[in-house]
Amino acid sequence: MGEKKRGIGRRAVLIGGGAAVVGGAVLARDELRRAWYRVPGVEKDRVAGRLDHPGAVWTAASPANWRLADRPADFTIDRVVIHVVQGSFPTALKVFKDPGHGAATHYVVRKDGHIAQMIRELDVAFHAGDRAMNERSIGIEHEGFVDRPQDFTDAMYASSARLTAGICARYGIPVDREHIIGHVEVEGTDHTDPGPHWDWDRYIRLVRSAPAPTKNGGNGETARTTAS
After folding, report:
1. Which pLDDT band, with edges at 50, 70 and 90, does 216 fall under?
2. Nearest partner of 120 among 173, 168, 52, judged by Cα
C-alpha cells in the first residue's frame, strides 16, 4: 500500500534578466483546477464522515493515510482495487487508523458482509502503492488471508459486490476485469492480494447482477460510528 511520490509536472518557470518568476500564474490549468480548494479561505462544501455507500458504518482512517481531493472533478475515478488484508477486520481498522502505517482503503469488508467506510470516495486513499492508481481508484479491503479460501464467504462476496456495483454506477465504471482489478495487478506493486483463491468470475457476475444505487454520488446518509 502507500503512495509512491511523483514530481510536480507541467510547472512552468519563466526565467529572464537573471530573475525567475515562479507562481500560481505559471501553473498548468489542470493543476490549478485540482488545487483550488487548498487556497486559504476556500473550503469545499463537504460533511466529514458522510457515507457514500448505503449500509456502511463510518470509522475514520488517520488523515496521514489519505489526502484531500475533489474527485471526480479533479481526478477521474475509473478503477476499483480489491485487497485482502492478511488479517482480521479489527486489524485492518487498527492499522488504517495508525498515522504511522502510511496506507488505508476507502472501505473494509468483514466476513459477515459488514462494511466500514474509512475515507470519503472524493478523497485519495493511499492504498495501491502507486500515486496515479490511488488518484483514479476506490480501494476495498477484505478481511482474511490470501491462502485461506474459506475466508471469502458468501456474505463477503455478496456485500462487496453490492459495494462495487454502487461505485461503478456512480462513476460510470465498466464492470469488467480491466476496471475492477486486484492489488497484485497494480503496476510496480509487490503485493499478491487478493490471491489465487479470490473467485473473479463469481465476483464480476455478482457485481453485474447487484442492484445499484444512483450515479449521483454519495447518498447523504448521516455518518454512524462503529467500534473498532
Report:
1. very low
2. 52
Kindly report the number of other CB atoms within 10 A of residue 156's CB atom: 20
Mean pLDDT along residues 125-146 = 97
120 contact partners, CB below 8 Å, separation of at least 6: 46, 49, 50, 52, 106, 218
Q: What phi and psi, each to the nearest 5 degrees, are found at residue 137?
A: -130, 165
Q: Which residues have C-beta within 8 Å of that of residue 1, sequence separation ≥ 6?
A: 83, 102, 103, 104, 105, 126, 127, 128, 129, 191
- What span, in angstroms and rounded, lies between the C-alpha atoms of 130 and 113? 28
Instruction: Please report how many Cα atoms fall inside a 13 Å half-sphere around the Cα of residue 89, on the Cβ side.
Output: 18
CATH 3.40.50.1580 at 57-209, yes or no: no
Q: Give the residue from 197, 215, 85 showing the smallest Cα distance to 150.
A: 197
% of the chain residues with pLDDT over 90: 68
Task: Kindly tell me if the per-residue pLDDT of 5 is higher than 60.
Answer: no
What nine digits make up the cell of 18? 537573471
pLDDT tier at 32, thresholds 50, 70, 90: low
Give the whole-angstrom CA distance, residue 37 versus residue 200: 38
Helices (H), the chain: 29-35, 89-96, 131-136, 154-171, 200-209
pTM of the predicted structure, to 2 decimals: 0.80
